[in-house]
Amino acid sequence: MAVNLSKGQKVSLTKDRASLSKISVGLGWDTKRFDGGSDFDLDSVIFLVTGNGSVKDQDDFIFYGNLTHKTGSVQHMGDNKTGIGDGDDEVINITLKDIPPYVERIIIAATIYEAEQRNQNFGQVENAYIKIYDQLKNETILQYDLNEDFSIETSMVFGEIYRNNDEWKFNAIGSGFFGGLAALCATYGLDAN
Fold first, then answer.
1. 192 occurs within a structural domain
2. What pTM does this model have?
3. Strand ranges of the sheet holding 167-177, from the earlier edge strand across to the other edge
4. Considering the domain boundaries, does residue 84 fall inside one?
5. DSSP label of 178
6. Please, what is the end-to-end C-alpha distance for the chain in angstroms?
7. Is residue 124 included in any domain, yes or no?
8. Could you say which of 16, 56, 58, 69 is the most buried, measured as most Cβ atoms within 10 Å of its Cβ?
């Protein structure tokens, strides 16, 4: 049975599932009806972060331009440019046992493509969520619905998967950033240019 989380809640992914090795992270959203005139394209991104809070190198940033980590442990399944339709809009597959040992946190985020040029922000997004699935059992482990109203933010950290001793845990973060992908990358030690 899936656990529904609130902002700030943490839950173990592996304590009661010792054999859990392959998960899928599904992100979903809808856009509010508004007179923007432009397409609304959210992009999910993953940062594999070390103990110092930053990525080791560019390879630890998984997004539409780098779909698979060099170890094969993280695979982005592709960019949904509209968010239209039921179910997950973007999916990332993660093999926990293959995550490099230097990685302490897996940051799961989304940005709005060309948000400033299109005058778009997360205040125009609704029904945003993150789900984590057990790939092998095809079961939903948890879901976190982002229910806050964000007005100027153009990128969002949905949550993080992190190591805690011999466990993998999930933290529901729901934190927005202004400045899009560049601001998000800078937070984790990358230059987006």
1. no
2. 0.91
3. 10-12, 167-177, 155-164, 105-112, 42-49, 61-62
4. yes
5. S
6. 43
7. yes
8. 69
Eight-class DSSP state of 193: -
Cα–Cα distance measured from residue 137 to residue 145, given in angstroms and rounded to the nearest whole number: 23
Q: What is the pLDDT of residues 5-49, one digit of tens each?
A: 999 999 999 998 989 999 999 988 887 765 455 667 888 999 999
Scan for tokens 């508004």, then name that residue: 34
d(CA 124, CA 107): 23
The CATH number that applies at residue 146 is 2.60.60.30
pLDDT tens digit string along 142-181? 999 987 777 788 999 999 999 999 899 999 999 998 888 9
Looking only at the bridges linking them, the beta strands covering 74-76 and 167-177 are unpaired
Q: Which long-range contacts (CB under 8 A, 24 or more apart) does 136-140 make?
A: 136/21, 136/22, 139/2, 140/2
Q: Over 26-84, what HEC string results?
A: EEEEEECCCCCCCCCCEEEEEEEECCCCCECCHHHEEECCECECCCCCEEECCCCCCCC
Half-sphere exposure in the Cβ direction for 110 (13 Å, CA): 30
Buried b (16+ CB within 10 A) or exposed e, 27-62: bbbebeeeeeeeebbbbbbbbbbbeeeebeeeebbb
Nearest to 78 by CA among 92, 95, 94, 88: 92
Task: Using alpha carbons, select from 179, 156, 186 the residue that is nearest to residue 45.
Answer: 156
**Total structural domains within the chain:** 1
Looking at the domain assignment, is residue 193 inside a domain?
Answer: no
